[in-house]
Amino acid sequence: MQKRILYEFPHSHFCEKARWALDFKGLTFSRVPLLPGWHVLTTKRHGKYSSVPLLIDGTNKVQGSGNILTYLDEAYPDYPLTRADKSEAIKKEKHFDLALGVSLRAFVYYYSLKHKYFISQAFMQNSPPWQRIVFGMQYPALVHLIKRSYCPTEESAVQAGKTLLGALDQVWAELDGKPYFQAEGFSRLDLTVCSLLSFVARPKELPVIWPKFPDDPLLKEWDERLRAHPLIGWIQGIYRSHRPRVLKP
Ligand SMILES: N[C@@H](CCC(=O)N[C@@H](CS)C(=O)NCC(=O)O)C(=O)O
Fold first, then answer.
1. Residues 2, 47, 88, 231: is their CA dihedral positive or negative?
2. Measured at the alpha carbon of residue 89, what is the angle toward residues 86 and 95, in degrees to the nearest 5?
3. Which of 34, 40, 137, 160 is placed for a possible disulfide with 103 were both Cys, Cβ 3.0 to 4.6 Å?
C-alpha cells in the first residue's frame, strides 16, 4: 500500500476539510501533527506554501484543502465530492473558505490566545511530549506570529465576527430548506461549510479532542450567539449522516 500522510494542525478547520474527504473516500492515511513555527520546515520542503493541510500520497504532494479535494476526486473517483458545475462550485468554496474559515479563525484566536492551556491542547493533542515542551517554551513567540498573521487588532477581530455572522445568514438563505447545496446530493460545498464551522457546531463525529472552553466572557458570548444560528443544527445533521466514523482522533 502506498504511503499516505496528512500533515496537519489537529484543530485546524482547513485540515478537517481534507481529513473528511479522505475518510469519506475510505482512504487510510496517517495524521501527522506539526509543531507550529517549525511546521514550515516540512511544508516548504514538500510544497509551495507554509500552510497545512499538506497531503503526501505516494509520489504526489498536494497542498491546500481545496486542492486536496480536487486531487482526491480525480485520483479516487468513487464517492465523488465534486458534482455538477465544477468551476462554479470551486469558486463558491473559495468564498466559504474566506467568509467562514478565515473570519472564524481571526476572532477565535484573538480572544483565545491568552488561554495558553486551550491553545496548547488544540495544537498539541496528538504530539509527542518533547514537542509539547517546545510549544510551551515558544508560546509568546507563537502568539505574536498568530496575531500578526490573523488578527492584529481588536477591531479586525470584531470585523471578522461580523463577517462570519453575515456569512452564516447567507449560507442559510442559500440552502433555503434544501438538504444540500447541490441537487445531486452531498458535495464538497456541504463538506466545506460543515468542516469550517465544526469548531462552533462541535459534532461528536469530529475527530478532534476539544479542550475545555476557556472561561472568557467574550468568547462565550460569541460562542452562544453563533451556536444559536439554525445552520448549526444542519451541520450536526450532515456530520451524523456523512462523516464516516474514525477509530481515533
Ligand atoms: N487556503 C488554505 C488555508 C490553509 C491555512 O490557512 N492553514 C493554516 C492553519 S488553519 C496554516 O497552516 N497556517 C500556518 C501557515 O500558513 O504557515 C487551505 O484551504 O488549505
1. positive
2. 145
3. 160
Task: Specify if 249 maps to a domain.
Answer: no
The dihedrals phi and psi of 80, each to the nearest 5 degrees, come to -65, 145
Q: Which residues of 25-57 are buried (b: 16+ CB within 10 A; e: fewer)?
A: bebebebebbbbeebeebbeeebeeebbbbbbb
Mutation test of ligand 1: which of 15, 52, 103, 145 has the most ligand atoms closer than 8 Å to its C-beta?
52
Q: Which residue segment(s) compose the domain that 211 sits in?
A: 86-242
- In tens, the pLDDT along 150-173 reads 999 999 999 999 999 999 999 999
The whole-model pTM stands at 0.96
Same domain, 71 and 90: no
CB 239 within 8 A of CB 201: yes
139 and 68 in one domain? no
User: 211 near 121, Cβ under 8 Å?
Assistant: yes
Q: Is the CB of 82 under 6 A from ligand 1?
A: no
CA torsion 219-199-8-128 (nearest 10°) is 70
